[in-house]
Amino acid sequence: MAQLPPGIRFITSFTRDQWYRAFIFSLTFLLYASFHLSRKPISIVKGELHKHCAAPQEVELNDKEYAARIQPVKKLSNVSQCGWEPFDKNNYKQLLGALDYSFLCAYAIGMYLSGIIGERLPIRYYLTVGMLASGFFTAMFGLGYFYNIHNLWFYIMAQIANGLVQTTGWPSVVTCIGNWFGKGRRGLIMGIWNSHTSVGNILGSLIAAYWVSTCWGLSFVMPGVIIAVMGIVCFLFLIEHPKDINCSCTPSSSSKTILNGACRFRVQMPTLNAKEMSKPQDPEMEHLLIDSENCSVSLNSSPVATGEGRHGTSAISFFGALRIPGVIEFSLCLLFAKLVSYTFLFWLPLYITNVEHLDAKRAGDLSTLFDVGGIFGGILAGLISDRLEKRASTCGMMLLLAAPTLYMFSAVSKMGLEATVVMLLISGALVNGPYALITTAVSADLGTHKSLKGNARALSTVTAIIDGTGSVGAALGPLLAGLISPSGWNNVFYMLMVADACALLFLLRLIQKELRCNADHTLFKEH
After folding, report:
1. Which backbone phi and psi does 498 adopt, to 5 degrees?
2. Reduced 3-state DSSP string for 441-458
3. Residue range 450-465: average pLDDT?
4. Per-residue pLDDT tens over the stretch 333-374
5. Measured CA angle at 226 (ends 223, 232), to 5 deg
6. What distances in angstroms separate CA 212 from CA 209, 342, 363, one per listed residue?
7. Using 50, 70 and 90 to split pLDDT, how confident is the model at 163?
8. Which residues contact 75 (CB under 8 A, 6 or more apart)?
9. Beta-bridge mates of residue 415
10. Mean pLDDT estimate for the chain
11. Three-point CA angle 517, 522, 523, nearest 5°
12. Can you give 190-234 as a three-state secondary structure string?
């Protein structure tokens, strides 16, 4: 009998469940990448909506130039190339900041409601409708170019509507990925998965930059079409929960071990080639590391409740979710971390345009390096937090390094393009690392707290609370940048450094507990 080809042997080496997990991982990655792809164009188009120029001035046209326009005589003509009305005025930074604030404020308010609504509706339908609506409102902004619309309120209303419907995305995809993946190496897995944010930003920047100088309306219409198409893909293929297709999860047969009041247990991870992992839990981290998979693990001879009752259990209340240990601290930390990240998201291309004196397209292309750094930062944060089993300490370490890095970026970016490239990569990693870890692994950890007894429906509400609070910061950051930037870009960076310090401040209690528990663990082993 002939030996099977290597490719077939590779395919058949994975189980049916593993293939489904890989498929859901890839699908949710692409779905949320399309959300960020549709958010990025506004930051690229800002440089086109307002072009730096002097006030309308008299320019003498020679005979040949004027003949092509009217008639072959010398004449004075008023020429203005300051951008797209109403953003061509001197208060353009405030107007552009209003666009950002409209989207992000609507997003922050809608997020609190979205998680609660999402718990009560099928994720596939909820996410599909949200993506189709988001595609429509993203394209609607670009239609202002084709229909020659110069009313500020048209663009603000398009941003508000888009901000509201985009809140359907994050709670839905995190709930879905949390249903399919348990705690084993969750930080690394979700760190890789969360790179969809940066991938979406990069693709959105490249797509928007391609048309920004020739037809900026297409910079919005094309991303709108893409997210709408992905909404159809979501409707056709998304599987909300493993048990919907009878996927199984077999727990390890290894017995429990009592350690300093916490339990050591093993969980079989099909997605990791069935390698067993044994991780100690300390009191603080116990609520962060409870498995959310469709498995039963015996602790102290009492089975942990599984997700079997997902469709039969009641949804958790808003205040019930707030009582989960760590939710408030991580939510407030994310508020300031996201403030920094979204200020870069919406204002970085314009900053590069002003400092490096590049056109809108080249500035947009260069700004993607910040997101490239963010990919590595998210993966690194997940990997370190898995190894140390300390989510808060990992975030705190990166936030501590981020503040001086931002100061260096503001100083070095004025020294030339090469220095700017290096600092974009480093800043992107340190700024987006904590943000990525909190919105993914930490949210999934807290959403599967032991007090929830396997109620997977609660994950949507917990995720929405954390990301909704973070979105308040996301709304404030670009708004503050728009108000502060007229006094100088250095002041914007000082504001971002203060925000990073505040984010670290809210994690100090959790960091202290993690370090104390680690010391107690070491002392217990010595005795």
Report:
1. -65, -40
2. HHHHHHHCCHHHCCCCCH
3. 65
4. 989 998 998 888 778 887 888 777 777 778 877 888 888 898
5. 145
6. 5, 21, 11
7. very high
8. 61, 66
9. none
10. 76
11. 95
12. HHHHCCHHHHHHHHHHHHHHHHHCCCCCHHHHHHHHHHHHHHHHH
Distance CA 395, CA 393 (A): 5
**pLDDT number for residue 521:** 54
3-class SS of residue 75: strand
295 and 267 in contact (C-beta within 8 Å)?
Answer: yes
Angle at 170 between CA 443 and CA 277, to 5 degrees: 40
Specify the CATH number for 15-48+87-245+316-526; select among 2.40.50.140, 3.40.50.150, 1.20.1250.20, 3.40.50.1110.
1.20.1250.20
Q: Cα 191–449–502 angle (5° rounding)?
A: 60
Cβ atoms within 10 A of the Cβ of 327, count? Answer: 21
Helix (H) / strand (E) element for 481: namely: helix 458-484
Helix (H, G, I), strand (E, B) or coil at 419: helix
DSSP annotation of 62 reads: P
Question: Reduced to 3 DSSP states, what percent helix, strand and coil does the chain have, rounded to the nearest 5?
Answer: 70, 5, 25
Q: Give the model's pLDDT for residue 105.
A: 86
- Tell me: pLDDT of 190 over 90: no
Largest Cα span, the chain = 99
- Distance between CA 304 and CA 311 in Å, rounded? 18
Q: What's the CA gap between 518 and 526, in Å, rounded?
A: 13
User: What is the share, in percent, of the chain residues with pLDDT greater than 90?
Assistant: 24
DSSP characters over 241-282: -GGGGT---PPP-PPPEEETTEEEEEE--GGGTT--EEE---
pTM: 0.70
Identify which of 223, 104, 87 has the alpha carbon closest to the alpha carbon of residue 162. Answer: 104
Q: Which residues of 277-293 are buried (b: 16+ CB within 10 A; e: fewer)?
A: eeebbbbbbbbbbbbbb
Q: pLDDT for 17-68, tens place per residue?
A: 889 999 999 999 999 999 999 988 988 888 788 776 644 444 444 554 444 4
Are 480 and 184 spatial neighbours (Cβ–Cβ below 8 Å)? no
C-alpha 230: how far from its chain's center? 18
SS3 call for 167: helix
Asked if 232 and 466 touch (Cβ cutoff 8 Å), the reply is no
Find all residues with CB under 8 Å of 404, minimum gap 6, and list them: 497
Residue 518, pLDDT above cutoff 80: no
What is the C-alpha to C-alpha distance for residues 114 and 463, in angstroms, rounded to an integer?
A: 10
Residue 444 confidence (pLDDT)? 67
Domain range annotation of the chain = 15-48+87-245+316-526, 51-79
